[in-house]
């Protein structure tokens, strides 16, 4: 069967038609966050110039200014709750600063986020200097810059830009936002977590400025044993919602002139480590983490010092803002694509055992203009072939494509945008 090529318009709005992220604005934003001295979650909330309270106030003011510039398209909000744990034994008030850009389908949500809090070598030190330039003022600057750019147009889905607290204490701000999403009944299509997205020189001096790592889970954390057994039988270990999101990010970046290469890491996070997107994975939401192509551990969670000629500390002079702007551009393109597209189809299944044709079915998606049926050989990681059908279709038969040898998935199309792909599992047990 002849391979069909995917039009670039269905993967991302051409970069030339959109304003690019500004390295200069992002530098200024990071510099401002660094100026608060420390943004430890237990630091002062009353000092107007220092601590997490002053930082939250500044981020909220930035979001409000962006909202004013777009005629009130953003609504700022704070959500807060007290948390207690080993890194805050007496409890601490965790507050997230949100800017919400309602879409025409307001209950469907795409989230772009980074964590505002910082720390030094001692996670319990709430007063000492902790500039947190790359970890993670870079992610918050990315969220702010994304809001500046995406607020210039209207979208189908709601976009939430979030500056979280409490990441260093136990992913508490992310837990608060994920649970808030569930309480409000949000349909979360994607969570783009950006944590350490602004350096290009690694621990051993190597420079990696041409790629960004995107981490994603394959088998879902929330799956039951029976669901995991079914996915194993279907062969869908590499196609859970978060992995599908990572593949969509990769495809979107490939369609952008001059974009960074997306290194889609098939692991939920760095080896033995974690991040804020995990709080969303625990509730079953598609979520990924963006992180630089190479890390410098002397510039993470360190007191500012020089020892034996080695300079320690997470300071702004170690950052590369041209690189950070390129990571931002990918976030913006992905968020635009998904916020302008319908939700991913549900109820996607495939049948064809003991035959030479494969029959794919799915549930109708409101507001779609069509569907794209994807398939690939079982030894391939990425979709290689596809066929498009109209909005009234809820089934498709791939003639001569044997289900034993191919995987299938379906995405929804509308207005030049494409949802993530939903993997097709078995419609019913087959012997």
Automatic annotation (TrEMBL):
<dbReference type="InterPro" id="IPR007484">
    <property type="entry name" value="Peptidase_M28"/>
</dbReference>
<keyword id="KW-0964">Secreted</keyword>
<dbReference type="InterPro" id="IPR003961">
    <property type="entry name" value="FN3_dom"/>
</dbReference>
<dbReference type="InterPro" id="IPR036116">
    <property type="entry name" value="FN3_sf"/>
</dbReference>
<dbReference type="GO" id="GO:0005576">
    <property type="term" value="C:extracellular region"/>
</dbReference>
<dbReference type="Pfam" id="PF04389">
    <property type="entry name" value="Peptidase_M28"/>
</dbReference>
<keyword id="KW-0732">Signal</keyword>
<dbReference type="GO" id="GO:0008235">
    <property type="term" value="F:metalloexopeptidase activity"/>
</dbReference>
<dbReference type="InterPro" id="IPR045175">
    <property type="entry name" value="M28_fam"/>
</dbReference>
<feature type="signal peptide">
    <location>
        <begin position="1"/>
        <end position="19"/>
    </location>
</feature>
<protein>
    <submittedName>
        <fullName>Acetylornithine deacetylase/succinyl-diaminopimelate desuccinylase-like protein</fullName>
    </submittedName>
</protein>
<keyword id="KW-0378">Hydrolase</keyword>
<feature type="domain" description="Peptidase M28">
    <location>
        <begin position="97"/>
        <end position="306"/>
    </location>
</feature>
<dbReference type="InterPro" id="IPR013783">
    <property type="entry name" value="Ig-like_fold"/>
</dbReference>
<keyword id="KW-0645">Protease</keyword>
<keyword id="KW-0482">Metalloprotease</keyword>
<dbReference type="GO" id="GO:0006508">
    <property type="term" value="P:proteolysis"/>
</dbReference>
